[in-house]
Design goal:
The protein has one helix and 31 strands. By secondary structure, the chain is mainly beta. It starts with 7 loop residues before the first helix and ends with a strand. The structure holds beta-D-fructofuranose.
């Protein structure tokens, strides 16, 4: 890459991750979910297609399995499932702009074939009343060839002067860029206004280098948490869709829980005001370990979303409690998105079907009490379970699916038609820490029918409910030897089960 110079912090990170990777047992990693090359991973960044390959960068601390000054890790894939590591892309090495971290951002291909990264640089801000120095977050660029990146000499390209008076210069981050049909560029950035409430700012540029503020696209107005992190904005199925990850949420029924959550707003943009008019909104994933979504458009036109398969509220498990693993954090499965009846629907990318083998299938299996099925077990599987009442006039009271199970441990999905709630639970999955271990969600529709597709990849499960109208994602601490799957019904249930092992 022309003008590329490997700074000392980047050279050190690249050298360290290469050496460290050789100590990590590849068997400790999932089969088709991306983990950090070494150390710590949080948000997906720069998820994009560039010169024949999918690129996925990530918030990265190669030196420890804990968050610290953020780098960008980097991997590429041809099928969104098998990832090959490339050297770390960015290190916090600019004394003014990003000394305290290269925070989340996104990527795009420039017309001249170079790859452009836009990220939040965290530099020195103002001194606080207690004497400590605060941060300043600004939006910066790096230009590269898919491996090496040069930080732009005129960084930052979107600075704090764009913020309204009283807005926090410490909470202005996570730019998501896209190109419009006329060739110009847009970008959304999360910010916090003078009242401490989140808002999403919209910027425009003709060349992706010099930016101007268009205005406020969406406002939290103190409803869903405080700061809205990791915004993403796109058109899908005739609607405008905004995805954000709010911090410090308050609970609301079974839809939103306290802590860090995710929020999807579906609507349209008012041409007069330039603001997103909300038509419907909901949580993106009703499970436990899910945060910081980012989407991309595949060459064949699919809108695909990925997220960090963790959450700031659930990272208290000591990653090396059972001996050295050397990495912590993983991405979700990439999911194809659609908008149906005011809801964001998610479905595993179709590429996963190529990994399926050894199909086992049962139809019309009556269940009353406990049941197990020959050949239905495993921890790296794609399984669909469809449940209904044996007699519509006689609704069942409960259906439970146990998985990652042995004599001592299990996880479960328990459904109760009367309340229409599905509960995901890992209380008995082997965790020795008291953090969030179960979540409920409300399932609308015909109360006695339930359709669940489970993708398990060793220490995780992603559940796609009723064709993907809802999803629940959870990591599983249990040893892989716990691979039994069993069923339980209180009342009379009939089920169809189709299961594949995944290579
Ligand atoms: C979200 C987040 C982002 C930030 C990054 C820092 O998980 O807090 O807002 O850019 O992580 O690692």
């Amino acid at each position: 890459m022309e003008g590329f110079f490997e700074s000392a912090p980047l050279a050190e990170a690249r050298d360290y991750e290469r050496r460290m990777e050789s100590y990590i047992d590849p068997e400790s990693r999932p089969c088709f979910h991306l983990t950090p090359r070494a150390g710590w991973m949080n948000d997906p960044n720069g998820f994009s297609y560039y010169q024949g390959a999918y690129h996925l960068f990530y918030q990265y601390n190669p030196y420890a399995t804990a968050w610290a000054a953020m780098h960008w890790g980097h991997a590429v894939s041809r099928d969104l499932l098998h990832w090959e590591y490339l050297p770390a892309a960015l290190a916090p090495d600019e004394p003014y702009d990003d000394k305290s971290g290269c925070f989340s951002g996104s990527a795009i291909e420039l017309p001249d074939g170079r790859q452009l990264l836009i990220y939040t640089g965290v530099g020195a801000g103002r001194r606080k009343p207690d004497g400590r120095m605060g941060d300043r977050q600004t939006q910066c660029l790096a230009i590269g060839d898919g491996v090496d990146y040069v930080k732009y000499e005129d960084n930052p390209v979107i600075g704090s002067e764009n913020l309204a008076p009283g807005a926090s210069i410490e909470h202005f981050r996570d730019p998501k860029i896209w190109q419009c049909e006329d060739g110009s560029y847009r970008c959304v950035v999360g910010a916090t206004n003078a009242e401490g409430s989140g808002e999403i700012l919209l910027f425009a540029s003709d060349d992706a280098f010099s930016w101007r503020k268009l205005g406020v696209l969406a406002e939290n107005n103190d409803r869903y948490g405080t700061m809205w992190e990791c915004p993403d904005f796109f058109e899908l199925d005739g609607k405008s869709v905004l995805l954000v990850s709010p911090q410090f949420m308050l609970p609301e029924g079974h839809e939103f829980y306290s802590g860090n959550g995710t929020l999807c707003i579906i609507g349209h943009v008012d041409e007069q005001t330039g603001k997103l008019v909300e038509e419907s909104l909901h949580t993106i994933d009703n499970g436990i370990d899910f945060y910081a979504t980012q989407t991309m458009l595949t060459p064949d036109g699919r809108r695909v979303m990925i997220a960090w398969m963790q959450n700031w509220d659930t990272i208290t498990e000591s990653p090396d409690a059972k001996g050295f693993k050397g990495w912590y954090g993983q991405m979700t499965l990439p999911r194809e998105l659609s908008v149906q009846d005011g809801k964001l629907c998610q479905w595993p990318v179709r590429e996963i079907e190529a990994l399926r083998h050894d199909r086992v299938s049962y139809t019309d299996v009556p269940v009353e009490g406990k049941a197990a099925l020959e050949g239905v077990s495993g921890r790296v599987i794609d399984m669909r379970v469809k449940v209904r009442a044996q007699d519509e006039a006689d609704p069942y009271r409960e259906f439970t699916l146990w998985f990652a199970q042995d004599e001592r441990f299990h996880c479960s999905l328990r459904y109760r038609p009367k309340t229409g709630t599905l509960k995901i639970n890992r209380i008995h999955a082997g965790s020795r820490r008291a953090y969030v271990h179960h979540r409920k969600c409300d399932i609308p529709g015909a109360p006695c029918t339930l359709d669940m597709r489970l993708i398990m990849d060793k220490n995780s499960v992603e559940v796609f409910i009723n064709g993907g109208t809802q999803a629940m994602t959870m990591t599983i601490p249990t040893d892989l030897s716990a691979d039994a799957i069993t069923f339980f019904a209180e009342g009379k249930v009939v089920m169809d089960v189709e299961k594949y092992d995944l290579a």
